[in-house]
Design a protein that fits this description.
mainly alpha; single chain; globular; about 150 residues; about 0% strand; N-utilizing Substance Protein B Homolog, Chain A
Length: about 150
């Protein structure tokens, strides 16, 4: 089944919420996934992508967190939990979903941060992901210096 861009956007939003819950509660990721499928309406969301992202992040959490930690200007534990979840999703996409252009991953993350993050959190997320994209996908993003999404 082919899903729309909006279905992916909704899946990312659910992932951000699930990762936030996982980060703060310490619950098992499988339990959080189950809760989300029971509580949320996935009619207009790409449920398969939701599962892929969460399982991928769980499987590669150390690698993802290392990349982010090396790029942020503070200890990773001091990053706002919402922004930490958003960064993990985008970093996962940069590392493992080369079919998704880096600009799409950054744009989606910035939009999530604008809606759910702290004030000016979107600028922080944009800056971190700009640096990550240069490190992870140098051939695709050799000279990116501009902010995305009008931020």
């Amino acid at each position: 089944m082919k899903f729309s861009a909006q279905a992916r956007t909704r899946a990312r939003r659910y992932c951000m919420q699930a990762l936030y819950q996982w980060d703060l509660s310490g619950l098992d990721m499988d339990e959080i996934q189950r809760q989300f499928f029971e509580a949320e309406d996935f009619t207009n969301a790409d449920g398969g992508y939701f599962i892929e992202i969460l399982n991928g992040i769980k499987l590669h959490i150390e690698r993802i967190d290392t990349y982010i930690s090396e790029t942020v200007d503070r200890p990773f534990g001091q990053v706002d939990p919402v922004e930490r979840a958003i960064l993990r999703i985008a970093c996962y996409e940069l590392l493992f979903r080369h079919d998704i252009p880096y600009r799409v991953s950054i744009n989606e993350a910035v939009l999530l941060a604008k809606k759910f993050g702290a004030e000016q959190g979107h600028a922080f997320v944009n800056g971190v992901l700009d640096r990550l994209a240069r490190k992870i996908r140098p051939a695709e993003s050799p000279g990116i210096d501009k902010q995305v999404s009008g931020s």
